Amino acid sequence: MTGKKQKPIRFGIIGGGLMARELASAMARWCHLLDLDVRPELVAVCDREPRLLDWFTANFPALGQTTTDYRELLANPQVEAVYCAVPHNLHRQMYVDIIEAGKHLLGEKPFGIDREANRAILDAAARHPQAIVRASSEFPFFPAVQRIIRFIQEKRFGTILEVDCGFLHSSDMNPDKPINWKRMIDINGEYGCMGDLGLHVFHLPLRAGWTPANVRAILSKVVRERPDASGRRVPCETWDNATLFCEVAQADGYAFPLTAKMQRMAPGETDTWYLTIKGTEFSARFSTKRPKTLETMPYSKSGPQAWHSEDVGYETQFQAITGGIFEFGFSDSLLQMLAAFCRQIELGNNGELFFGCATAAETRWTHEIFTAALASQKSHSVVAIGS
Known about the structure:
Helices cover 29% and strands 26% of the residues. By secondary structure, it is an alpha/beta fold.
């Protein structure tokens, strides 16, 4: 910091699990960032399980409110913005209540258990245009991906030939892993892995304007049963893996393929987000398997077509104290995402960032895509998106 005073944005957190602790930790690291006029301040936390509140009280001694009733948090006039990380079946009620209470919302994907729930959330946002309503999606804030975003803005790719993107992990490879709510349709939703992973995959393509016109989906239920808490085997109801073959239409009538993969059963993948864009003049690709490496392929009429590999240092949208030669990681991407959300609150909905958090409109498009994907799987056919 240069010594200037920062305006606090007072946050409440609803849902005290893994991602809530990550976000609170990012708030505690705010001194890592430089030259911002705002800072988040954690003033309230809510979870139905009182034991989950212990970590917050132990690490944030100035925390003003802990509660098991989220409505008490929303009634707190100190709370200006809310990060909400709860199961998908709770999104509609809680997200709408947060917005109607006059709070800014940073919510987790998929922003509603289904398309109807998502529309109710977006209707609430439309009734409160002053509210900043965004969805959490961290991976585009990696420095190499920020470079790719700049390439897109500069129209470096020429005519797009194809886009390949996905989010893969192997956390469900063990068939004896106990069942949790993400395997239950009434809590997770019928989208399965698409609802859990899909916004991360489509955030950047949708921001680039690559909205699919149709989809042919192949969805897989690999493990049909898992043990419950008592050891009894019960049905796994949701999709484990999804591969979506999409067609993206352009204004001139040209269309290119976009392939999106969302997999909970991907051998060898711990937590891999990737993106490849191939164009007639330039190509680029990135994977979190090699988090500091950006690969590009510029074309020339006479030169070889060869991938160039470059290690990208700590080049971030929001400047930090970290030296440029050091590596960037997930906690850094979460901090950058939180900075983008706070900066958006400062600027208002009409203020433009180089790259911001996933918008409510972008969550709507993911619901259109995933709803069409379910129909495609059922009919074994190509389905128009938004029909």
